[in-house]
Design goal:
Elements: E1 4-8, H1 23-38, E2 54-63, E3 74-83, E4 88-95, E5 103-115, E6 120-121, H2 126-133, H3 142-145
Antiparallel strand pairs: 1-3, 2-5, 3-4, 4-5, 5-6
């Protein structure tokens, strides 16, 4: 299984009164990583995949330890834990660098592809499904994780 790596810059405005990155800001970090991950497929050969929009149906986030502001970016590792007909689940870990043991945040997001023209959710295409399988976690329940 591959993991997508996104180097996320920290900004001064990300800090709370205690000098830590504010908990709400981590949602923006996850959004930046998710967009970077999902749009990796779209630019390929002019593929329209994931370019029509998506909506977040659910976030789960565990704050493991505080992140103190610094000039170096953090790494957001992303992978897929489930692919259904019209949704996918992306898991994340926010770390100091690739391969780091200590984690600041563990999270997951359920994403629903969305057709902006019709204003309705849409099914995941075969091209998208093929791309997502490369990032599918080992041991994921295949019946639940990859449905045709």
């Amino acid at each position: 299984m591959a993991r997508h790596l996104y180097r996320c810059p920290l900004r001064w405005s990300d800090m709370d009164a205690f000098g830590h990155v504010n908990n709400v800001v981590f949602l923006r970090y996850l959004e930046e990583a998710r967009i970077d991950f999902m749009f990796r497929l779209a630019p390929g050969d002019g593929s329209p995949s994931f370019s029509g929009g998506s909506v977040v149906a659910r976030h789960e986030i565990d704050y493991v330890r505080p992140l103190v502001h610094r000039h170096e970016p953090v790494v957001v590792e992303s992978w897929v834990t489930g692919v259904r007909n019209a949704s996918l689940t992306i898991a994340y870990e926010v770390k100091d660098h690739e391969g780091a043991e200590e984690v600041y945040v563990r999270a997951s997001t359920v994403v629903v592809p969305f057709n902006l023209d019709t204003q309705r959710p849409r099914r995941i295409t075969e091209e998208e499904r093929s791309f997502l399988r490369k990032y599918l976690a080992p041991g994921a329940d295949q019946k639940e994780a990859v449905q045709a």
